[in-house]
Amino acid sequence: MTAPIDSLAKVCGDVRAAGPEDGVLGAVPRLVAAPATVAEAAEVMRAAAELGLAVVPRGMETRLDWGLPPERCDLLVDTARLDRIVEHEAGDLVVKAEAGVRLGDLAAALAEHGQRLALDSPLPGATVGGTVATGSAGPLRLLYGSPRDLVIGLTIVRADGRIARSGGKVVKNVAGYDLGRLFAGSWGTLGLIVEATFRLHPMPAAAAYVSTVVPDPAAAHEAVQSVLHSPVAPSAVECAATPDGIAVGALLEGVPDGVTARSGQVNDLFGGGARVEQEPPAWWGGYPDGTTLIEITAPPTALAHADWLTGSATWSAAGRGLLGLPGDLTPERAAETLEGLRAALAPHKGGAVVRYAPEPVRDALDVWGPVPALSLMRRVKDQFDPERRLSPGRFVGGI
Amino acid sequence: MSTSLARLAERFTALLGPDGVITDPVRLRTYECDGLTNHRATPGVVVLPESAEQVAAVVRACAAEGVPYVARGSGTGLSGGALPRTDGVLIVTARMRRVLEIDIPNQRAVVEPGVINLDVTRAVRADGYYFAPDPSSQQICSVGGNVAENSGGAHCLKYGFTAHHVLACEIVTPDGEITELTADGPGYDLLGVFVGAEGTLGITTKITVRLTRVPETVQTLLAAFDSIESGGTAVSAIIGAGVVPAAIEMMDALSIEAAEAAVSCGYPPGAGAVLIVELDGPDAEVAHQFAEVERLCRQAGAFEIRIAADDAARALIWRGRKSAFAAVGRISPAYLVQDGVIPRTALPRVLGRIDALSAESGVRVANVFHAGDGNLHPLVLFDDAEPGAAERAEEVSGAILDLCIEHGGSITGEHGVGVDKSRYMPRMFTDTDLDTMQMVRCGFDPAGLCNPGKVFPTPRLCGEVPGVRKGVHPLVEQGKADLF
């Protein structure tokens, strides 16, 4: 009988036994395969299906410790060698890249043509595949959305090793189901993302960050609302807890004259005395400190009552908050904090999920909180992965 | 009427009252087609529910009887997505027309599916907001229909499609359960795939839409060119300069001629193409970019540029464009509207090939398109009194779609696949691609009763169907599939 490593080595040029450093939240795989092409990735997945191996994809590991550990992890599929920018037709403002391309490298290639993928992920080392699989976005989400809104075509390898595409390379396209949106934020549980095609935007000629500091969430809410309902059309509006109070800032992008004029307008809306900078303020767009990260989703007005926006925390006017909990917080206290937060967000129809946490904390909490439509999600999962071999247990409701 | 339909009609009357159910054959005929009139089927029964609970009850009853059903909003779709089934139930949302909530601070509104697209904007305009998706049928089309079709419009180049403007949908699943799909909750983005699934995954009963701030300034110009080629050069130059217009629309000589005949839009005489460019946003941005657009149009050879000085002048510029489809009726007894997409950079090549197709076949083609995103709407003209003309027009129309696919585009940019284009899907997607999409459908609707026969040319069998089922699988019954 052929050993799994030999079966895989027949179809993929880079297969090795896994070591402890390949563990995913403590689940150490037996094997690591790094396919270099989409076809090779498909062969790897087909072999994994034949061998009944549980598969977890890995990009640059920027968010591999997010979510829950896989219940089983036999084979880690590393996308590092899927690193080609397949097609960039500048005149069409579209780029197709393999899953292992890093966002930073992609940005550099696009910048040469005065273009960008409007995803200012806080982790520029992250890959295309990982960013789509985790649905990650930064402050620009306010104007440009998240991967679901920017992916116009997706190539996946199914659990059975077949290659499937949806969408295409034109922005306007309603032919067939949009699997790009389904796979965005699916955490490797539906299939292996191998290529993504994105719509691009022109790089703005000028940008300015206009920021101020206010005493409390109510005042931050007032400042944010004033900008959102004004005609200045910000690309992003962010808040962050700082030692001096809550910093509130707006990013304005456009032509130099326009940005100058609009910066003046935002300064007026902030009551004067705002800082205007070309570079982002230090608190802008990162993940807050802490060993546990909670991500909050709620409508913009939830900010007015965001008593949690203190310590290590940020709020994005797109309706996202991030709260970092310190390492010395006991699991019990962390769980209480999370439940308190969920109770406070419930009247706003908001929710909170734990992105990462030390194991004892993770074990003490309900990571995802209530999940509407969970039974439908399970049924979709059953269709894509009937044997439950793709990142099992990583996602909501044990999916 | 079959016995199961008769039983259902009785059940529906108990659920919805007699005026919520239509069984009279003459009245049923009203619903035999949507905006695509060459596909017709008189529905078995029509119901007019007023609430999500009623929709759910109707769906549950259909599921129990194994009877297919189709949802319909205003019936303006152009791909036969709401084509009824003679052996099924048509669920019309016309009585679900309440705007339930307007929440300006959070820039959103909650509406029922039958609410007319433009009525959302009307409800919030005074607050300085609007609902961005603007399909040309926006005065009559419903938001529920927009969700099903992921509707776009002339301004989606900058603002995106319905999928980008819907935050949540309450839906009735094919099991008859009421549940909510959201864009940002934990778990799969089922909302993202539901929007644009053409009513095959369930029926939406409540929609939370995003409201967009009315821009400070809107500037519109009309530029006239000798030829489509020079118009196309201007489009490339504008996009290449990093401008993202709210809209860029182009019309060729034949469509200009039609619009002139219909609405006397007074476009510059002798134009081989006109380009409408609209910019919106903050004053200072628009002023700068507008000057740039004007310069680029002149550089590309525009022989006349008109700038709208006010809303009335803007409406005049748009009048020709907006009337174009209907206007073609003035210069041709009959016509087909095609909807295909190509990468913008392929515009000159593809338009050249369409010209050649037209010359070879003797079939006239008028071109109207959303030039900014490469969405073509060729109007294929024919005389329906002439034997064989309709078939020739169909052939040319199909050949245009092949051109779109050949150049890496799509068979539909905004009208949807419906029944009209399902046969073209295998030209754009592999069997595995289509099979994979249908895994989603099997997850939502294993029995295949929710708007069956749309989007996909061949239905996928879903294996074990959960729950109690009566009789034979509907696909087997129709001879479309075998159970193994």
Chain oligomer state: heterodimer
Count of runs of 4 or more consecutive helical residues of chain B = 16
Q: What is the class of the largest domain in chain A in the CATH system? A: Alpha Beta
What amount of the residues of chain B lies in strands? 15-25%
Contiguous low-pLDDT stretches of chain A (5 residues minimum) are none
**Number of beta-strand segments of chain A:** 19
The first-to-last residue Cα distance of chain B is 31 Å
Overall pLDDT of chain B, averaged?
93
Q: What composes the largest sheet of chain A?
A: 8 strands, antiparallel
Strand arrangement, major sheet of chain A = 15-12-14-13-17-18-16-19
Q: What does this protein look like?
A:
The complex is a heterodimer of chains A (399) and B (484). Chain A is of the alpha+beta class and 399 residues long. Chain A folds into three domains: 90 residues, Uridine Diphospho-n-acetylenolpyruvylglucosamine Reductase, domain 2 (2-Layer Sandwich), CATH 3.30.43.10; 118 residues, 2-Layer Sandwich (Uridine Diphospho-n-acetylenolpyruvylglucosamine Reductase, domain 3); 159 residues, Vanillyl-alcohol Oxidase, Chain A, domain 3 (3-Layer(aba) Sandwich). Chain A is 27% helix and 25% strand. Chain A is globular, with a radius of gyration of 22 Å. Chain B folds into four domains: 90 residues, Uridine Diphospho-n-acetylenolpyruvylglucosamine Reductase, domain 2; 115 residues, Uridine Diphospho-n-acetylenolpyruvylglucosamine Reductase, domain 3, CATH 3.30.465; 109 residues, Alpha-Beta Plaits; 111 residues, Alpha-Beta Plaits. In chain B, a hairpin with a 5-residue loop joins strand 8 and strand 9. In chain B, helix 1 packs antiparallel against helix 3, helix 9 crosses helix 11 and helix 12 runs antiparallel to helix 13. Chain B is globular, with a radius of gyration of 23 Å. Chain B starts with a helix and ends in a 7-residue tail after the last helix. The C terminus of chain B is likely disordered. Chains A and B meet through strand 9, helix 7, strand 11, helix 9 and helix 12 of A and strand 9, helix 7, helix 8, helix 10 and helix 15 of B.
